[in-house]
Amino acid sequence: MPQQALPLTYLEAGEANGGTPMLVLHGLFGSARNWQTLARRFGETRRVYALDLRNHGGAPWAEGMSYPEMAADVLRFLDDRGFARATIVGHSMGGKVAMALALAHPDRVERLVVADIAPVAYTHTHAPYVAAMKAAKLEGVTRRPEVEAQLAEAVPEAPLRSFLMQNLVLENGVFSWRINLDSIGANMEELIGFPDFGGARYEGPALFIGGGASDYIRPEHHDAIRRYFPKAEIRMIEGVGHWLHAERPAEFASMVEGFI
């Protein structure tokens, strides 16, 4: 049974100018803070809200993490602020949330930008990262490098370890993870999948931006993209991986700005 839509925490940038606001949705293990710099840039021409999705950042925790549930959280954010429509930018998991919102409520999405993800089920899993974070001994630890060292075997890539470590917080002298690892782990199959929206289509403008060195948007995914998003423009940033907005922020931002 679907859970009640949750109130999401957020960061904001820019000034309301009467135009359509932009919502930015982060990926798995991320948070609104990952998008602060780009939100400020996009905020030069509009009001921008970078959201913490459920079980991430400062947002409430919940057992369910289906894409319809997470899209309902974003819809509540729009409703609570009286926004009739918004431009939605989503990366990875956030891109799937953005697509789910556009397919379920196309009238609420003015333009859609999806970064390095397609409306398909993937075979890879992030379960080993969840397991490593849950297994890390935090009690009695006084320094962040001690925790990071415990992740090194399961997560040998230093940039990815640093990204995951952004979720480690120190409160009252005690380290803890600020993401709901139990729910993320329990919902991993749903998170790497994508719901069947049947004959639903989003007929509005859509831009899909892929990393040339990533395997998340490949030619074999184009049919699935265009089945749901017939007006989709698919562009690539060559030589970058899945975190294309962090590796080439200026190029990514220019593509988005040229589209919106």
UniProtKB/TrEMBL annotation:
SUPFAM superfamilies the UniProt entry points to: alpha/beta-Hydrolases
InterPro entries in alphabetical order: AB_hydrolase_1, AB_hydrolase_fold, Epox_hydrolase-like
Domain of life assignment: Bacteria
Record key words, sorted: Hydrolase, Plasmid
Domain AB hydrolase-1: 23-253
Listed Pfam families: Abhydrolase_6
MF GO annotations: hydrolase activity
Protein name: Alpha/beta hydrolase
Native species: Azospirillum ramasamyi
